[in-house]
Specification:
197 residues; Beta Polymerase, domain 2; five-stranded mixed beta sheet
């Protein structure tokens, strides 16, 4: 699946565990909060305690991982396991720790996304070796290191957040062009903005 094209409503419905919910309000971006890295550390510890040695890597990604970047106040976390398709190995432990399965995408890197009930975390689960892990981390690192790209991305996010979207994923899909532009300038491959649903 090519994530550079917008996801259809039919696809969103099929990937969503439970009912696909339209946005209850416009996209609201917050100024960077220096507490976000601490929130990541707190959740990383909870996740590591829940899945134990099965956690091969835990990364803070997305806009809350980039100092100075505005973001929806939702901490994006990548959890790398041996096999993200084997939900029986990890999903019950994550659910017992307070993370609920929200997205299941077997056709896209066996991606799973869990959310906290209060909406403060998007936990993306991928298998070891999945190229999307490195793409997400690379994009984060590029934005941390390059002020011009960080400003470009921030402005694009603000412009898009002012528009009306049916689903949060539609907003995420609309950011793909600027993400591609930044990665292309850095000589990197495409990256998706996942887990916005």
């Amino acid at each position: 699946m090519d994530r550079r094209t917008p996801l259809s409503e039919e696809y969103l419905r099929s990937a969503t565990v439970g009912e696909l919910q339209p946005l209850p309000a416009p996209i609201c971006l917050s100024d960077y909060d220096p507490g976000w890295p601490f929130e990541f550390q707190r959740h990383a510890e909870i996740i590591r305690n829940a899945v134990g040695e099965r956690a091969l890597r835990i990364e803070h990604v997305g806009s809350t991982a980039v100092p100075g970047l505005p973001a929806k106040p939702i901490v994006d976390i990548v959890l790398v396991l041996a096999d993200s398709a084997n939900e029986a190995e990890f999903a019950p432990a994550l659910e017992n720790a307070g993370y609920r399965l929200h997205i299941r995408e077997p056709g896209w890197h066996e991606h799973r996304m869990f959310k906290r009930p209060e909406g403060s975390v998007n936990l993306h689960v991928f298998s070891a070796g999945c190229p999307e892990i490195d793409r997400m981390v690379t994009f984060r690192d590029l934005l941390r290191a390059n002020v011009a790209d960080r400003k470009l991305y921030a402005q694009s996010k603000r412009t898009l957040a002012d528009q009306v979207w049916k689903y949060t994923q539609n907003y995420a899909d609309a950011k793909t062009a600027v993400i591609e532009e930044i990665l292309a300038r850095a000589g990197r491959g495409a990256v998706s903005d996942t887990g916005e649903r």
